Amino acid sequence: MQRQTTIVKPQDITRKWYVVDATNIPLGRLASKVSMILTGKSKPTYQPNIDTGDHVIIVNASKVLLTGDKINNKKYYNVSGYLGGLRTRSARVMKESYPVEMVERAVWGMLPKGKLGRKMYKKLHVYAGEHKNDAQKPEVLVIK
């Protein structure tokens, strides 16, 4: 007797919306849990070649926690492509001035690269304060 593998079709996927409060949660832990939800690995219908993930709203990104001395030692790099076009920012500057970008970069680093990863990344919504997605009726997701 052979078992049948269920193949999920894109039109059969039901997507939920989750809201996560990032207050006092370590950045890496937050990013890994959120990336699992975005990829759909938390669902029984997960398939690596299909985007089965859900939408995630992250609020209070400016209150995310950096453990150890990362606030002083961790660096974020951007290169413009021109000579001398390397821009370096510390985690302190990123947290104070660009908290949304800091969280987005952490989650993007844990998603697969390519077309599928970009599709998953579009379901991430990060806000420094409160969110504006009440119409989607998001469920509260607690990350410890």
Strand content is: 15-25%
Q: How would you describe the shape? A: globular
Order of helices and strands: EHEHEEHHHEE
Overall pLDDT confidence: 95
Task: List how many beta strands DSSP finds.
Answer: 6
Uncertain segments are none
Number of DSSP helices? 5
Distance between the termini: 43 Å
- Give the helix proportion (percent range): 25-40%
What attributes characterize this protein structure?
single chain; 144 residues; alpha/beta; 4-stranded parallel beta sheet; 17% strand
Provide an overview of this structure.
The longest helix is centred in the first third of the chain and has 13 residues, at 27-39. It is globular, with a radius of gyration of 17 Å. The mean pLDDT is 95. By secondary structure, it is of the alpha/beta class. Helices cover 29% and strands 17% of the residues.
How is the secondary structure organized here?
Layout: E1 17-21, H1 27-39, E2 55-59, H2 70-73, E3 75-79, E4 86-90, H3 91-97, H4 99-109, H5 115-121, E5 124-126, E6 139-140
Parallel strand pairs: 1-2, 1-6, 2-5
Antiparallel strand pairs: 3-4
Helix pairs in contact: 1-4, 3-4
Task: Report a brief summary of the structure.
The protein has five helices and six strands, in the order E-H-E-H-E-E-H-H-H-E-E. With 144 residues, the protein is of the alpha/beta class.
